[in-house]
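G., the chain you wanted modeled:
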Amino acid sequence: YNNTAERDLFIAYLASELSVESYYFLKETKDWKEMSLDSPERIAQAIQIYRTFIETESLLEVNISGTVKEDLKQVFVVLQEHMDTELPPTLFDAAVSQVSNILSAGPFERYLNKNPDGLELSAGGRGEALVLSHSAF
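Predicted structure as tokens:
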């Protein structure tokens, strides 16, 4: 979201649905993807994203398939042994796609129909202009 007030309302709504981790995951992976490939923080940030959002029973674990989770786990197992492993910009794309799909089909759709106070939005209300995509974060 470019509109910080709208973003804050959506985050509050996600918190009320106990799914705010999805928003933060999408934001963190977008920021990571925009990092320079030779940035010294890139690997550390990828590890942080994995430990926070992907690792089983992590603090803010997102809902992704076991296959995607296992694929990412294997990358990070190799990374522990070879810290010079190059991480492709597409590393989190499958997880991002799944999280975006879940948000679009659930919380985001409900958010478009209600504001956090539970009032229905009228036609032409703030929700119509929102598009949920990785670029929106």
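Residues 118-135 have pLDDT under 50 and may be disordered.

Shout if anything looks off.
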